[in-house]
Write the structure tokens for this entry.
Amino acid sequence: MTSTAGRLAHQQRRQQGIGTKQHAVKFSQQDYESLKQQSLKTGTLFEDPCFPAERKSLGYKELGPYSPKTKEVVWKRPKDLCSNPKFIDDGATRTDIVQGALGDCWLLAAIASLTMDQRILARVVPPGQSFTEDYAGIFHFQFWQFGEWVDVVIDDRLPTKDDKLLFVHSAEGSEFWSALLEKAYAKVCGCYEALIGGNSIEGFEDFTGGIAEVYDLDRAPPKLFQIIQRALKLGSLLGCSISISSAFQSEALTYRKLVKGHAYSVTGVVQVHSNGELVQLVRVRNPWGEVEWTGPWSDESSEWETVSEEEKSKLNHVAEDGEFWMSFTDFVRQFSTLEICNLTPDTLESNDVGRWNQYQFEGTWRVGSTAGGCRNNPATFSSNPQFVVRLVDVDDDPLDDEDGCTFLVGLMQKDGRKQKRFRRDLETIGFAIYKVPDELKGRSNVHLGPEILLRQLAVARSKNFINTREVCNRFNLPPGEYAIIPSTFDPHRKGSFILRVFTEKQAATSPLEEDLNADIKEGEEEEELSESDVDPHFKHLFQQIAGNDNEVSVFELVKILNNVVAHRSDVKTDGFTLETCRLIISLLDKDESDKLGLLEFHLLWSKIQKYLDIFKAYDSDYSGTMSSHEMRGAAIEAGFHINSEVLQAIISRYADARYAIDFDSFVGCLIKLEMLFRMFKALEKDGSGKMELDLQQWLCLAII
């Protein structure tokens, strides 16, 4: 299947609801239930052909096939490692997650967070799996991956050395859910080595489908307390940590008994009355459940004596559970980073929390068509994909004095970990937000050009352009319509991305794209033209060209057109090909003679003159060729309204290695577009925007 056909098939699956929480994509097209039943029926334990127990599944360099680190690795099933293996024993806890010989502590911190919320754990680790009932050596897990949920099947063969698990394992050594979860995630990313290095927020997102914000507490925004308060009301997951400068500091204690380099969760904020003043408090949880903060507002501190018994009873401030209170001031001073994972509306089913409204779009940056780079590249910037968000209702409880609409924008590039083995780095990405002009409000069938985007400043933008998996920022803007322009920093950088918008209030979002349309007359011009209307000089020239049969064949047409363009110095061309000239005759030949008569040739000549004028107008540097980024505007001038998907197909077909389009390619493209639009209109069913073909009809049309 071609990449284009694959992309279209993917779009169709998404339209059918595949990839949602209720209908996860089967990763590698493997169905857990059918594979399990097949293994049970044959009495054999499942062996995964898509992620085999081989060295290539371990890695490509440090853990590659020729690395000394992988020479003594033996793949074993849990039943070969202990007499009574358990999938989950007495609930999933943090002691089930002990790091092995893989630098994926970021992932393990995210896995540990799953143990704090059994509802989310059950989403990632489907219940009912075990090593006893219907055991067949097969397990499955579900992850959110770049906009869709995937169900990942694995066998339970795990890499070991000296009869011990090489990577993550439980403290007791008999519980295997975390090791199997790590393997499933490695399969999704291509191999175990692809998991080395990262940020726990990436794991949070892939386990929840949420969108993550990261705050540097050294530069905390003025309203951070209110942001935390609102995030908790919306059911977001919050984590905090103290940065370390070296591995030697990991898990070192501060003098107030906070653990450095350790992932805490934030579970509440409140304001209490103390000595007649309101004090902001933050509730923090240590997943270890034992080491707690000993500073002001800790369990036994004297500050609680200044709070009424009624307030204290509501706060449960002395529970011995690893959860503790501290002042917001101390929180910001002691911790380095706050991470907020804002959940999608369907992550939690509880009515105790509010809901973000989520909107999601997939897009691509394609070299020559939609990879326009940032605003520093005015010639190509407007070529980038564009999306509109319409904000109507202001926040119920604004953080600032002025009414506004709070929303989050997250731009995520795809498959960074899979690309590691090919030594491909993440692109530097970001986005800008522009106000939609009044005359275009309410429309989504437009693409904002340079005459709009370059004449105004962005009203907001991502904090920076950075080579990370995702860039996410929070904004508050007045009600209105805004265009979001995601881009790489440099132009001509290819990639696929997910753009997500989370709003507190309902909003309308959509891609900004031209509707597919063509300004084609129903009645052909030559039907209104007779031979007597043709200029006698033109008629004489045609008779000289056409010969005795008074018609122009495809071979004669090639010679005629190439003779004409060869004498022009203002356009460059490789010459009209037989393929292009056959297209021209297929479009204009009304009597199916496979040749052009006088009126048909006259119509062609008029088209070419029109296309030549457009081509020269869009050849902005007078090079004799047209930049591929100018093709959208030139096509519109010629009467064809195309969107980014069609534009990408055009550039792939008609641009040269430098993404320039010469004159013969330009003419061939427009002729092909007109033919395709006419064919569709002829076969369209009752103006439905769809047509139906059997295989023979499809092949006959496609071969033309």
